[in-house]
Design a protein that fits this description.
single chain; 268 residues; alpha/beta; Rossmann fold; 11 helices; 10 strands; 35% helix
Amino acid sequence: MGWPVMHSRSPMIHNHLMAQHGLTGAYVPLAIPPDNLPAALRSLAPLGFSGCNITIPHKEHALTVVDAIDPVARRIGAISCVVVEPDGSLSGTNNDAFGFVENVLQRHPAWKADAGPVVVIGSGGGARAVAYALAERDAPEIRVVNRTRARAETLAHEFGPPVAAFSWDERHLALQGATMLVNTTSQGMTGNPPLDLSLDTLPATALVADIVYVPLETPLLAAARKRGNPTVDGLGMLLHQVRPAWKAWFGIDPKITAELRSRVEATL
């Protein structure tokens, strides 16, 4: 469920795995306007769904709809996965942090979050998951930069140290000395303007990650690669969060293979 959602490659991934594991069912994109989210989620059980994934802009709103929230989703303050329980109630969890870390480690096995300051662009559900993942791995400083400073301050207040809020005017100052930069906004996604961020003040050794995967190489990643920074695209985050979702829905831990990634890449 998202708005918009038709760009999502999740149906391709999940339907491929369903065929591979011999499951009878289908994974479908549901374009749900924000005002309709409560009714849509409450329709899952009567329509026979095992659950759903939640994407932009519903991740925080979903917290107010589900019946139970696990500790990870509660701490992050956003839901990325809903499970329909046997009694028809809805449980919410968040697999974004898991997907983010697994993606980075797959691409850069030597990466360590505690190497130095990390800059996170954005303050929505994706930013919350990334900040949670970084804090859990002992990042010494997480600089959250957002166009609306108040939202960054709210995130910093809720998480506490090591998260600190920066205004949009301070974005280039925040890059100084950073060991990692993560874009969690939709800027740079196909159909949206690129992220308004110069990398001049970012160290050339800093790892640059983007959770956007359409296109696979966003303008931010292209600029980073051009100046020699190591990069991580957002597709792996999408792929790896499939595993905990499938464990919750079907009791299966699927393998995320290079073949599956190649199939999805071919459509981007």
